[in-house]
Design brief:
Elements (H helix, E strand, L loop, with lengths): L1 H29 L10 E16 L5 E13 L8 E9 L13 E6 L9 E8 L2 H19 L1 H25 L5 H21 L3 H27 L17 H34 L5 H29 L2 H9 L4 H43 L1
Parallel strand pairs: 3-5
Antiparallel strand pairs: 1-2, 1-4, 2-3, 4-5
Length: 374
């Protein structure tokens, strides 16, 4: 027994050392990976504010404009090590521009010059942000590992696998004539099976959650498609999708499909875990008691998850809502233009959540009775 405990402790320490090595190596690489980029990258070493003005539009909205002189050093390419100079104009609102600071790494273009001894000048294209993305990603990974431990690790693996599957699926759609709804249907099946089996293992609880997730998601999509067909999609504004060269209605339905999956899966595994926990506490519990307890749990979950769906979808539209309202657009038109698709997605997900509660309840009872029979 003591040897087993020592082995577990040794494996845990080894795992944490491996994670620490991966963290240090990845951070070091991202902060010194300029040579792997084809585009020129420059690091800001000096900034100077040279001018500032005030502007106002026809609605008396004021904004402050600044002109910034930037000195940077090139970190890759043929001119590596040389200074390069930029003039950056930015506004206080920062809608389409931004202020740059010492230490920022920028993607730039270098202005061609016939004089090799002349100062290099160019244009700023974008900020190199991969180091910040990496830090946030590691915070997320550490939080998962600390809270979830073994299940947290499998959650990370599940997320990586699902991301690869989704990337492959989208690439397949772009480069083929396969229907996007069919591709998303296969993805939903794979996402559900991979996520739930990796995190919860092969057991009756997982099987109940998988069945409930698939039924809830597909029924939600069918109801949403039927409602859109009956109402002839009145009230939906597709203006933000008009730039697509593919059928935007199909892409919107695919978004509904994938979007509903997350909420439905959350509800199904919550319900299944709760039902099986009740059964494990009292294996003589009756089906009626399970139904009563399950519905009480479902009612508590239903309100919070539908609210989460609403906030998640609406939050992305807040900047555009403010922009439209600030420019004196009518409230009704502003909401219609910016929220119709988001509200439709939230409602479709809400339908899936509500339907999944009784589906998960009866699916879990079925697998619990199966486990009793064994």
């Amino acid at each position: 027994m003591e040897n087993i405990t020592k082995k577990k402790t040794y494996n845990k320490v080894l795992f944490y050392i491996l994670i620490a090595i991966c963290f240090i190596a990845s951070v070091f690489f991202v902060y010194h990976n300029e040579a792997f980029y084809a585009r020129p990258i420059a690091e800001v070493i000096k900034t100077e504010l040279t001018d500032s003005t005030t502007e106002s539009d026809m609605y008396n909205n004021e904004d402050y404009l600044y002109t910034q002189r930037i000195t940077a050093v090139l970190k890759n390419g043929e001119e590596i090590g040389r200074n390069i100079y930029f003039t950056n104009q930015y506004s206080a609102s920062g809608a389409f521009d931004q202020e740059y600071h010492v230490g920022d790494k920028l993607f730039v273009t270098i202005k061609a010059s016939t004089d090799k001894n002349a100062d290099l000048t160019g244009t700023i294209l974008d900020v190199k942000r991969d180091q910040f993305v990496l830090i946030v990603a590691w915070i997320f990974i550490f939080a998962l590992l600390i809270v979830g431990k073994r299940q947290g690790l499998f959650s990370i693996i599940s997320l990586i696998v699902n991301s690869v599957v989704l990337s492959f699926a989208l690439d397949l759609y772009v480069n083929s004539n396969i229907n996007l709804i069919f591709i998303c249907g296969v993805c939903v099946l794979l996402f559900t099976v991979i996520s739930l089996m990796l995190i919860n293992g092969l057991n009756e609880k997982t099987y109940a959650a998988i069945v409930a997730t698939l039924l809830g998601t597909f029924i939600s999509l069918l109801i949403s498609a039927l409602v859109l067909w009956v109402t002839s999609e009145n009230g939906l504004r597709y203006e933000e999708m008009q730039f697509l060269t593919r059928p935007y209605r199909v892409i919107f339905m695919a978004g509904l499909f994938i979007g509903a999956l997350g909420a439905v899966m959350d509800v199904s595994i919550t319900m299944a875990s709760s039902m099986f926990a009740l059964f494990e506490q009292n294996q003589d519990i009756s089906d009626q008691a399970l139904k009563t307890s399950g519905m009480d749990i479902g009612k508590d979950v239903m309100g919070t998850i539908t609210s989460i769906l609403f906030f998640v979808y609406i939050s992305g539209s807040i900047p555009m809502l403010i922009l439209y309202l600030k420019n004196s657009y009518p409230l009704g038109q502003t909401l219609s233009l910016n929220l119709s698709l988001e509200l439709a997605r939230a409602l479709a997900g809400g339908i899936g959540v509500v339907l999944t509660i009784p589906i998960s309840l009866y699916t879990s009872i079925f697998f619990i009775n199966r486990k009793r029979a064994k």
